[in-house]
Amino acid sequence: MAGKFEVYKDRGGKYRFRLKASNGQVVATGEAYETKASALKGCESVQKAADGAQIIETES
Question: Where would I find the DUF1508 domain in this sequence (predicted)?
């Protein structure tokens, strides 16, 4: 089973998303959005950006 995005309303009334792995562990979270539609677009942006993304190590 693939991971899934969950869109939810936070305590402050803003919309956020989290990406959960197939085991239920949260692996990424999104910023706060004013609307649910914006949060959904954020999910889509992450999906597109992650497809084939390289892993690059950097120094702190």
Answer: 10-57
